[in-house]
Design a protein that fits this description.
about 350 residues; alpha/beta; Rossmann fold; 2 domains; seven-stranded mixed β-sheet; two-stranded antiparallel sheet; 11 strands; about 15% strand; globular; Sugar O-methyltransferase
């Protein structure tokens, strides 16, 4: 034992002081690096497990109006029948999981933070691309878009880094509308009835009203998302939206529907100006798409964005066939260059 220790000291005695200090520093550096790494792992685990709750704790006490809207939202969710596990196609199973997660979050977490929930971010919130903002700024009516993309604080959305008073998602919606409008020289303000298949949390309809649309807007969606849309839109009083289904108003009326029959009744016998489906129609079963097109009155315009592939569905082939089946429309199908694997599908009814 003594000899071993002696040999250790003997070896160290012949190591230059400068080299010895460097060895010690490297050893300490490795130890500290390992400690920091372990701490980071623990922080990530804590964030994943308690992150939503921590962000809730940072919120101030809710106002009476906020508490009232949250109570309505939770009562609506509680009124829904329990989702049953069932054998179904992959896309339906996927959206059933999203529905169950959203229900859980609404009941357990603070909805004032809902735009920070992973289930919302992954399905309804696009972080944005600078090319979309640059396109909007290049338009002659940029001043109107500039005003319309001012973001609301409802849900605590993340601001777009290059345009902090907006969000990537709101800019993305404005970009889709601008591209579509410029293609057909269409003024959104001149439209009276718009139908949206899958309305997310209500961001697009919010943009449309901020952009000058004053007509009726119908959204078809799953019940959980429909309730979330009402919670979100009712928190922006400046929009002046009326949700009353029996209203005699014709301006700024939003009809939230959860069945095709409700959608058809809401449209009524009035002509439909635009059918909008942004990454929604392309995610649903073919049978539901066919039912929608069969029962809903044909619009003057189609604005559709889609993934080229979704699960086992070839959407490029599907929309190519749809264009052939509807020769009364002028169709434009093109890739979104800054979003590889995604495309726009615009249609305008041919007059005469």
């Amino acid at each position: 034992m003594i000899a071993t220790n002696a040999s250790k000291y003997y070896i160290i005695a012949f190591v230059p002081k400068k080299c010895f200090n460097e060895i010690i520093q490297k050893m300490i550096g490795k130890i500290l690096k390992n400690v920091v790494h372990q701490l980071l792992i623990k922080c990530i685990i804590i964030k994943n497990k308690f992150g939503d709750k921590l962000s809730d704790w940072m919120l101030p006490e809710g106002t009476e109006e906020e508490k009232f809207r949250i109570s309505i939202l939770r009562n609506d969710i509680n009124s829904l029948p329990k989702l049953q596990e069932k054998d179904s196609i992959v896309s339906e199973q996927e959206w059933d999981r999203h529905r169950m997660t959203l229900r859980d979050h609404i009941m357990r977490l603070d909805p004032r933070n809902f735009l920070r929930w992973p289930v919302v971010i992954s399905t309804m919130f696009f972080s944005g691309k600078i090319v979309e903002l640059e396109y909007l700024k290049s338009l002659p009516d940029w001043a109107e878009y500039d005003k319309a993309i001012t973001e609301s604080t409802i849900g605590k959305p993340k601001n777009f880094p290059d345009f902090k008073r907006s969000s990537g998602n709101l800019i993305h919606h404005a970009y889709s509308i601008a591209l579509f409008s410029e293609t057909f020289s269409l003024k959104i303000k001149s439209c009276h009835n718009i139908f949206e298949f899958g309305g997310g949390y209500g961001s697009l309809v919010r943009f449309m009203y901020q952009f000058g649309f004053t007509g009726k807007y119908i959204i078809f969606d799953l019940p959980e998302f429909s309730f979330l849309q009402k919670y979100y839109l009712s928190g922006i009083p400046r929009l002046g939206i009326d949700f009353n289904k029996n209203t005699e108003r014709t301006e700024k009326v939003v009809s939230l529907t959860t069945t095709i029959e409700q959608s058809v009744n809401s449209v009524g016998n009035k002509p439909l100006d635009i059918f909008i489906a942004l990454w929604s129609l392309s995610e649903c079963p073919i049978a539901l798409r066919e039912e929608i097109f069969k029962l809903l009155p044909l619009p003057k315009y189609f604005l559709i964005a889609y993934q080229e592939k979704f699960n086992n569905i070839d959407n490029v082939d599907y929309f190519k066939k749809l264009a052939i089946l509807r020769p009364e429309y002028r169709w434009i199908d093109f890739p979104i260059l800054h979003l590889p694997g995604n495309r726009y599908f615009f249609g305008k009814k041919i007059e005469g």
